[in-house]
Each structure stands twice: as structure tokens, then as C-alpha cells.
Write a structure and sequence with these properties.
This protein is of the alpha/beta class and 659 residues long. It has 19 helices and 22 strands. The chain folds into three domains: 136 residues, no CATH class; 118 residues, 3-Layer(aba) Sandwich (Rossmann fold), CATH 3.40.50.720; 227 residues, NAD(P)-binding Rossmann-like Domain (Rossmann fold), CATH 3.40.50.720. The longest helix has 35 residues.
Amino acid sequence: MRSEYRNPRHLLVALAYGLLAVVSLSLGYLLRFEFAPPATDLRLLLAMLPWLLVIKLLVMILMGQFNSLLSFFSVPDFLRIVRSSLCATAALFVLWYSTGGQFAPPRSVLVMDGIFFIGLVSGSRLLLRNIRDQWESVSRTSRHFEPVAIVGAGDAGAQLAQQLMRHASFGLTPEVFLDDDHAKWGHQLHGVRIVGGPDWLLGPNVPPSLHRVIIAMPSAPRKRIRTIVQMLEGRGFHLDTIFSMTDLIESKSSLTRLRPVQIDDLLGRSPAQLNSKGIHQMLAGRVVAVTGAGGSIGSELCRQILRCQPEKLLLIEQSEGLLFIIEQELIEAGFKPLIVPLVADVCDAERIQGIFSEYHPALLFHAAAHKHVPMMESQPMEAIKNNAMGTAQLARAASQAGVQRFVLISTDKAINPTNVMGATKRMAEMFLQAWHAQHRKGTKFISVRFGNVLGSSGSVVPIFLKQISAGGPVKVTHPEVTRYFMTIPEAVGLVLQSGLMGQGGEIFLLDMGKPVKILDLARSLIRLQGLKPDEDIPIQFTGLRPGEKMFEELNYHSEQLQLTEHHRIFRLTTTAPSLKTVNARLAELQASFNHVTVDELKFQMTRLVPEYTPRLKETKPQTDASPKASQPPGDVSEDVPPGPPPPEKPTNLAQPEFF
């Protein structure tokens, strides 16, 4: 016998199972002979008993029964007992037939022995479990446990209640179940009453000690969860939830890992259904590159791409610190053989060309960008270099290297931009459209626009949470300002879907639902912390910052909005601008760097993006080069009226030939 079965616990299990085997076989004999077995059969039984026990116990060892904890018993344990008993009975039947019945009990005794053995072992295990539960119940009554209401009397809620009742370490005890299904009301689940729907918590029968609610509805639509949370907000309840069904399936979490209800639970829409098979086929076995891999969008792109088993994933990131963080995360997740961390600047042509020459990526997702709106307002040169010229530089290198698909992460701020960040993102879109129009047989260039993402760096949500934890005030720019919001995982999933559908030259627009008032968002966050807006936490209005809009737009009037095969993705088509003109305007901007004021540089940007309305510190130069509202976006004329001329290049400076 192996050493693992020599410890006292295994010997005790063997002794218990051996005793039950003797009892079951004896009962089989007694029933076979109507409780009056002949003396010869009794002597035969005593002679065969050691061999029968050895065979039965050996089969149970091989079936792993000695590894079970006797006081824990469930349906899977019962099925394992049945399989072990059937195998033992089958082995005894083989012995009977091989010896002609000389060294084995009668066949009827073997059948009854198998049935009795299953019943005795299962009954004993169930009795031990009941004793343990009763003991834990007695010990629970001597401790203080916080009562909780569980919303959702389905499988998830039932398992959660069972775990809470079994494990005293949680310090929680299920008080009531709540469910939308009227047919369940009045019944019990694991001894806990199902008293009604979630609105029961607003009635008069709620126990005074009940202050905690757990929403156990991982597969419910977010719209329903949002309704429940909004109904209970500000009512003195501490709201928790279990993780989503996606996280549970992917083993990111368990039913007993609770988390507070978060603002992304309240977006009011269900996660997008993706063409997972198509996305997997697009990425599997290929070299994929992600720029800005350490950022919020870039890092989530890396996570989702790696699930599709690429040959290699190139993590291109300018920030060494951010690259280290995402590299360590992916290594801990088991992806070390697939990732290649690369410190690189997308504006560094030689470095990018060297990476492409060495690794030959088939797909490129371009998420690297300067994105903070107020910060870029005071230094537009950096935004132009990184967002516009960096994208152009990367696109040229990708085209030369034979990259099959190039997906640009754009923004809704690129539409009729009022800030430098949005204008430079629009420049990037225009360059990709113009370049693709001139190089249709090569790389497919695709742009994807979407709004704000919850939880990204610089996002309003972590800023608000920090202000709430400090006791306020929560600073909102304007009571009527609205924004579109998405979660990072859903935005990235739809970006991958867009990359699969794109044929080149398109701009895809993601369905972001309804715009959300920032003021409502702030109040919801305050309530989710168990506080009251304007009472516990004041709200202060600070005014719109430079470059900010009251609301975001979705597309230009000249862009045709088309449905796609995915209901959450729209295709925008328009006439591509002239590549010659786009190159010329970008070259003019580059020549102006360090030689013009911030206002002059912003005004010069309108020559490429005429719909851009810059926020100027000084009076705008009086020329006829002001943006023309009637001019369709992207339709950049070859004869643009002269704006403030860029200063002549110093003859002693070498001008880099960017285009």
C-alpha cells in the first residue's frame, strides 16, 4: 500500500469502510437465506471474508475514495461512491465466474451487497455531514454574524448562501432571498425564506439589523442590476455583488468573492456578444503588435489578444514603468513565452522599422497617444508629434513591412473638435484614410471611435472616488455636461470585432448607449459609498476646462452612417482627403514647431482640420483662413487660404524628412 494511505486518517477511513463492507455483505446473506443461513454457508462466508474485503477496499483505493473528507458529502461524492461500489461488485462477479462460484458468495448476495454498501456508505457520510453542520450551527449562534439579503434565488444565489452558511470566516448569514420570479415567493432555499422581489427591502417588514444586500445575478442584464441598485441607493444598505458570469467562467473569481457594486455595473446595457471564433482565427498563430501596451486600452488589448493564442505579442510602450507592470501581470498569468516587451517611441522611425523587420507583425493595434485634454491644450506640439505624426510614421512603416491590418484607437472627441487632443486624433484618422486610398492593395487601415472608458488613467471615476474618500467636495465642471461611457473590456472587445470586419479606409463607431450626465455619475458614486450627495459630500461646479465640450458628437454630417453585421458597431464612410494635402499640412506644422506661439500653432491646425474650433488665449489672427462650417470634414482643398505663415527654417538646422 502506498505511503499516502498509511497515515491515521486513511487507516480510520479504511477501518470504517471495511466495517460497512462486512455489514452490507452480512445483510445480503441474511436476506438471501431469510435470516436463517445454513451453517455451511456461514463457514464459507467467514473463509471468504478476508479476500472479499481486500478486493473491495483495493477497488475503493484505486477509485480515490480514501482521499475524501467523510464529513463533506454532496452529489458528486455520492456518484463516486456508486461508481466505486459498482466496480467492486463487478470484480466480485468476475471472481465468481472465474471460480464457478466456489470462492465467492451467491450472485444474489453480491447484488444485494452492492446496494447495501452504497446505502450504508452514503448514509454514514450524510450523517457525519449533518453532525458537522449542526455543530457549526451551534458555534454560529455563539458568534455575531451580520445578516444579509441575497437578491437572486437562482443557482448563484443558492451556492452563495450555502457557502456563507458553511464558512463562519465570512461572518455573514443569509437572512432572506429576494427574486423577481413570483412563483418562488413563499418557498425556502437552503432553509432561507424567499420573501418577495427586491422592492421588499423598501417595505415595513425589513428587520432593523438588515443593512447588507448581495446581488447574486451574474447572468442578469445590466439594465436590471442598474434598476435594483438605483432603487436601493440612499436607503442605508451596503450593496455588494458577485462577479459577472464571464469572470466566473474564466475562473477570475468565485461566488464567495464579493465586491462592492461599481459604477460600470450601472451602464444599463448587457455585454456585447462578439464573433469570438472569427476574432480567434484572426489572431491565433500570428504575430500581433500593440502600441501603448502599458496604457488602459493597450493593456486590455494585450489581455484579450493573448486569450486567442497568437504566435507572439509585441508590447510596444514608451514608458518603461508601465511596460514593466503589464509585462509582470502577463507573466504571472502564464503568457511569458508569448510576449515580447519592447521599449519604443512610435515617433522613432528607425526603432519601429527595426522592430517590424525583426518580428514581422501581421496585425497592429495602435493605442499609443497623448490623450489628456487640458494638458495637451498648453502644449499642442507634443500632441501633434505623437498623435498625428506618430500615427503617420507608424502607418508608413506598417505598410512597408507588410502588416495586414492596422487598427487605430480614435475618439469621439475627433468630431468637430474643440481641443488639441481631438484635433490631432482627427488628423490621424485623415492620414489613414488618405494613405489607404493611395495604397489599397496593401495594409488595411481601420479607425475605431468611442467615448470615455471607465477606470482608465485620467478617467473621472477614480478622480471622483479620491475626492469622496477625502470627504469632498466632488468637483464637476458643469451641471449639464454629458459624456458617453464604456467599460474598458467591452470597448476593447468591440475594437477587436471592428478589426475583424474592417476592409480598409473605414472609421467604425461603437455604440456607447445613452450619454450620461457627469453630475448624475458623481451622485451615484457618492451613494455607492453609502453617503448622501450634497449632505455628506458636497458637489462643487468648477466650469468647463480649456478644450472641453458640453456634450460629445458621434459623427460629421458628411459621414454616412451604415449598419454592420454587429448591432453595436456602425461604419462611417466619407470621401478620403488628398494624401498630398495631408502630408503638406503636417509638414507645415512640423516646420512651425518651436517657432510659433501656442495660439498660432492651434490656428494653423485648422488648415488641416477646418472643423476644429481652437481655444485661444489671445485674439485669433484676422485672416480668411478661419474654419468654414460648410466645408465637409476631410475635404481639404489643395488651395487653402494662407494663415499665419510658418517662419523660415534656420539654415543651420537639418529638417527631418518625415513624409
